[in-house]
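Re: export button greyed out
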Amino acid sequence: MSFNATEFQLYLDHDNYETRNKWREFTKADIFKPRFDISMQESKHLAFERLKVVAENKVFSAFDFLKNPLNVFANHEMAGMVDHSLATKLTVQLNLFGGTVVTLGSERHLPIAEGIDDLSTVGCFALTELGYGNNAVEMETTAHWDQKTKEFVINSPTVLSQKYWITNGALHSNYAVVFAQLFIHGEHVGIHAFLVRIRNKDMTLRPGVFIEDMGHKFSSNGVDNARIKFTNVHAPRESLLNKYSDVDSNGVYQSKIPKKRERFLRVADRLLSGRLCIAAMSISNTKSTLCTAFRYASKRLAVGKTGKSDTPIMDFQLFQNAMYPLLAKSICLNVALNQIKTIYSQNAVNEPTMDVIRFCCVIKPMVTWNLRDVATRSVERSGGQGYLSCNRLAESIGFAHSGITAEGDNSILMQKVAKELMGSVEKKEYKLPELTQCPMRELPNKEKISDVETLLNLIKWREISLIKELGKVSYEKMAKGGTFYDVWMKEDNYLVQGLALAFGERVVAEFCTNELRLCPSGVRKVLDLMVRTYLAHVVLENLSWYLIHGTVNAKAATELKSTYREWIHEIHPQALNIVNAFGIPEHLLTAPIAQNYEDFNSRPNQGEVFKPKL
Amino acid sequence: MSFNATEFQLYLDHDNYETRNKWREFTKADIFKPRFDISMQESKHLAFERLKVVAENKVFSAFDFLKNPLNVFANHEMAGMVDHSLATKLTVQLNLFGGTVVTLGSERHLPIAEGIDDLSTVGCFALTELGYGNNAVEMETTAHWDQKTKEFVINSPTVLSQKYWITNGALHSNYAVVFAQLFIHGEHVGIHAFLVRIRNKDMTLRPGVFIEDMGHKFSSNGVDNARIKFTNVHAPRESLLNKYSDVDSNGVYQSKIPKKRERFLRVADRLLSGRLCIAAMSISNTKSTLCTAFRYASKRLAVGKTGKSDTPIMDFQLFQNAMYPLLAKSICLNVALNQIKTIYSQNAVNEPTMDVIRFCCVIKPMVTWNLRDVATRSVERSGGQGYLSCNRLAESIGFAHSGITAEGDNSILMQKVAKELMGSVEKKEYKLPELTQCPMRELPNKEKISDVETLLNLIKWREISLIKELGKVSYEKMAKGGTFYDVWMKEDNYLVQGLALAFGERVVAEFCTNELRLCPSGVRKVLDLMVRTYLAHVVLENLSWYLIHGTVNAKAATELKSTYREWIHEIHPQALNIVNAFGIPEHLLTAPIAQNYEDFNSRPNQGEVFKPKL
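Workaround output, generated via the alternate export path:
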């Protein structure tokens, strides 16, 4: 099996090739060379300097949300293969802060908004509070309208109401989008977003703003995460981002959104695109991690037949079984993410449908958990080299964890997916996956289930069954006086999580099998192998469920296992070509194990790949 | 269910209470307070200063290998809950270096050996080479006997023959145990170990010794890992550690071990105890990780029934399902490790039996993989707080990875386990697990399999079946002209890995169920719950295998799943008591989330829990 590497790269890159090519060029500069043994202060300086170079190259714009949303994600994908701290700072500047100002602001915010692209405005997104990371709608920060000064007065009344983890906050922001419970003449009208100046021109703090750097972190120490407290911070009337709600100079509040909860959801809208941003930067990082690990495995020699070290570890089934299923899964997630980004960008930047909400909420967990697994196994299968920072595999574990938590904890998002899904089912607004075979009748007698159609049917069938099961369990328990809350949170959460994942796996599987028809011809064969392997992997991961439910019999299960192993075998001759066709430029594959690690180790290096001129 | 917390702690601590209590006292000193935003240089200094305090307290001795081997492991367990870098430096000083010198040396090495306990001798273990981490027996470093000077001349002839990852090497060692291919008058006699002075009294390097710090790492940056190259380094005749082999002043070589390969295995003996050391420091770190995560979960509030943040996340099934199976598994691994340490210490320090080799090689992977999972899930379930270094959950992911790789890559060790096991089976020296029920006859008709006896039988049955299957597959393929190497490494490695894990799970399950009879009464009930949950977990992890093989039917599988959930539910009221009964002193539970994180966040802290006096 051969495939067209360039076509494959363009296919996975999907859009905004010009942006991507510019990144591939300007990241050749020395400033993008990774540095390891530097202080936290230097790390933060470096990440910001890198962000400045990105901005100078005019590859991103906060106004892309209105013109070319796919370009927002393209920038995240490129950043994800360069530097995690840069990517994190970028996503806050461009999506959470920039996107919010552009999509929720109006004419009066334009002067500030126009500074976002060239970093004359640097922003942070002050939503999360120490005590309410898992329940933002209950946040404690308040904004009281002061009729006398015609200003909002913002306060963090408690320790738990401190804004927490605020990227760009500790050093570089001059503005913050601050979320607060708004009170007009004492009346609570819900959470609103304010564009607040937090630093003066000389970067000293504005009165009433307390900011502290959060200190050392698991990873991405180039990000200036802050704790922020507000004490009687005065913000002008115009600071309110007023697309949906506004206060006039007489202190009269008006909103296009009647419900308070709805008001919050609309102002926090960039969390939704944020999930695609996190997925985008994680998927590209997954690809560079795989590329580094596979290149090393193709050169690293271990015990061969005669006992000599003459056999690349990539030739061992141990490596193949550990890594190739993840390769297939990563590519399928990439393909599905491209579809979801497109759907989101076409019609959902402002008014996301339930479908789009579920897609965004399920793909971020799937991609970030996969990055965690890819990075974990890559480190492990690279032995000691995986532990050296300069080889850049281990840092992706930390990056995955920040993605797992950011823009909504993965498992909590999965609960949201299941909840929205069951809600739509109840309202008869959910289109159940369509089966082309009827599993309960036909499948149990099948002795061979390892064709794409059958596998896809099995995956769809599982989603349908879990919808029914969760529906039935909830209904029965609530009929007996149980509460929805107890059923979902305390008694049957495993079903909730199971359904959300089954939904996500079906979505990815369906997007990918569709793509087998639609993709360019030079890509089809390799994509077919990836998709087959992924579908089989999903079914095998849930094999006991299928066996218990009688959808698959023992013979078919055994057949699938054996076919799956053949497919992994089939991947082997192309595995290195595939990761090399990800289009990660050599200058970004800085890990010595991705290049010539023997040469690297032939000279003093102190574990660094780059020595800056002093 | 109640239990006696003190008895539980003493039961898990198992031995050398005096050593443990001393550690619990002297670690109150400020020097043991964790520091995060410090330079690599400071980290290394700090780890060594801590090691000095440990030595001053005379809790460990390299001579414990001859007198009280369990005390070696007790020290590792205590170090594992204090500081990863300290633990790593300690294990090299005490086990790899110290243990090797004490057990392979003789009278003539005594002056140097006697300095190990008070650190007047600080040592490193120069075995691993850049190119031969996975095949040490093929190492390239040479020692040529020079009859003229009556010395050995040691050389690293190639880039790949550099000693790599050598803990204590970059800064603190004055001695190294150097492994090299020995040539006597040009004749190769195999790998031998030499006790070589590498630094002078003033800590300058000895002639011909090139040492470089390896630079920044994923974690444990307080460890001074080195790359070391030797160029015509002269070592006196007496430097040869001569328990098994020696060279007299006439250059006549003698060895008690005829085979070269055997000579290598015997001089690398401390790798075996080293696996128990790694397991020991990892199991205690697992316990402190669980304790921190559970304490936070018991206080961290999230959405309750009314929407307010009033419910601890520990009350959610999401947390319970993620963490309680790992709690049960961790305790079972701890119990099994205690048994294995005891067996090793009683009769295997010098001449390990096959049983002991398999135990040591299987328990290190199981414990370190479990720590990886515990740390990963603890970070994730603690949200943003898990990402802050001061909460000390994330660092355990890095520590787990160093354990996964050190003293033999986990998966390679698992291959060794399977190989030794199948070798013993072939020689009819392997005692197959004894079944008290005949699964193939009785179990498929059982509708209830959730009792300890049945679960244990199922686990044993799986090991027996996999032994047969791997035997059959190997035999058939080799009968058809296949090679053992291809079958094991390229075609059926999944079976090899599967068997090794099935063996390990059976060993742990069997030790634990035995302990249910032998353990103190105040511990029995809680241990019973942990063991039941672990056994069910193991069976459920392999459920599709049981279903395919017809050992378990769909009804019994469903029953087990439901009982398993009940057991998790049963753990809940005791979970916090259990982790608090691990006996980790409060002064070592420094994570703000393990104490009062609201208080910590009420004042400036820069992410540090301790501010040293300048």
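Chain B is about 55% helix and 10% strand. The button fix ships in the next patch.
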